[in-house]
Amino acid sequence: MSLSKKKPVTPTSRFAILQDFSEITKKEPEKRLLRPYRKKGGRNNQGRITVRHRGGGHRRHLRIVDFKENKPLPGKVIAIEYDPVRSARLALVQYPDGEKRYVLATAGMHVNDIVSSGKEVAPNEGNRLPLRAIPEGSNVCCLDLQPGKGAQIVRSAGTSAVLMSKTENFAQVKLPSGEIRLFPLDCFAKIGTVSNLEHRYESLGKAGRVRWRGRRPKVRGVAMNPVDHPLGGGEGKSSGGRPTVTPWGKPEGIKTRNRKKFSEKLIVKHRK
């Protein structure tokens, strides 16, 4: 994948740095693997906004992704596709029995590659196998948090974790956040780095592209009235007169993780 900078012929193209989609080999998705993607607008079943700045956006379909990849047969990658609801690319894999499944593509995955999953497969790019069978020092992605649950973390574009060491029952993995955590050796992971490496360098260039993605404008608290935000009000332009807080008065930037959480004992080193 590579990025393309637009020629600055309009104000909206002046700062746009967009994907060129050169790695996409198939434009139309598999209809059997599509589901409706219903929009909630950030509202719960009572109609109240629980997530702010959501709404609108282009119509999209949800691709059914196989995060477990538990089929024992080796599959052949027949296409690399775009997914509108995630940053990574999808690989369309066809198995010898004719079944097709979507899996998350890795950076080195190409059409006609053979991918496998299981305890006895080779630790090659795109293969999914338990941590006990992966060599130390390997880059992995799509990790299980618990054996058999399927890929739950390290799924964003360009991310990877490092398998640092292994003990009798656990593997020590350094996550993209810098956190070092213990995983059971029976947890599966995929060899390689998630595709779309340059996603972080993309610049949308205009507010409209943000709206197409379903994100509504964010208003500063100091620009509101006192009834709407703790930082609101004041004569003229006021900076709030108090530390930055959320609309509900909670200080921003403080750590909110519960130190009594059951998984705390699995964290060797917290993230930065």
Please characterize this protein's 3D structure.
- The model has no long low-confidence stretch (mean pLDDT 94).
- The chain folds into two domains: 3-200, Beta Barrel (OB fold (Dihydrolipoamide Acetyltransferase, E2P)); 222-272, Irregular (Ribosomal protein L2, domain 3), CATH 4.10.950.10.
- 4% of the residues lie in helices and 22% in strands.
- The strands form four sheets. Strands 9-14-10-11-12-13-15 form a seven-stranded antiparallel β-sheet, with no helix packed on it. Strands 7-6-5-8 form a four-stranded antiparallel β-sheet, with no helix packed on it. A two-stranded antiparallel ribbon has the order 1-2.
- It is globular, with a radius of gyration of 22 Å.
- It has helices at 11-14, 207-212, and strands spanning 3-5, 17-19, 34-36, 61-63, 75-81, 90-94, 100-104, 114-115, 128-130, 139-141, 161-166, 170-174, 180-184, 188-191, 267-269.
- The chain has two helices and 15 strands.
- With 272 residues, it is mainly beta.
